């Protein structure tokens, strides 16, 4: 599949994207342009997140080929950190929001 990649140079790619942006700006309303900008920004961020995560998983497979348990421990560790940080921030935010709402 890698052999079928687009052969555009960097300048050609930038020119192509700019032409699309100008076309969208000339045919869509200001609200539509704003929405499309937000959608494409989210798309770019999501693609970057997926790409980085896949690279990290490939790195884990390369380094833990002989260590079967380490991959599972890392996943549990990541899940635990995500859950704890979400709970803490949610708890603090909820308490802070309640306090600030009551004060006002």
Automatic annotation (TrEMBL):
Residues 30-56 form the DUF6774 domain. InterPro entries: DUF6774. Residues 77-90 have a biased composition (Polar residues). Residues 91-104 have a biased composition (Low complexity). Coiled coil: none annotated. Residues 57-104 are annotated as: Disordered. This is DUF6774 domain-containing protein. It comes from Anaerocolumna xylanovorans DSM 12503.
């Amino acid at each position: 599949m890698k052999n079928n990649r687009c052969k555009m140079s960097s300048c050609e790619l930038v020119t192509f994207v700019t032409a699309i942006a100008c076309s969208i700006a000339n045919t869509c309303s200001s609200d539509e342009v704003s929405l499309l900008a937000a959608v494409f920004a989210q798309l770019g961020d999501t693609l970057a997140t997926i790409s980085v995560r896949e690279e990290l998983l490939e790195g884990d497979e390369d380094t833990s080929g002989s260590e079967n348990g380490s991959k599972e421990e890392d996943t549990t560790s990541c899940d635990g950190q995500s859950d704890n940080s979400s709970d803490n921030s949610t708890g603090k935010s909820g308490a802070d929001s309640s306090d600030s709402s009551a004060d006002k």
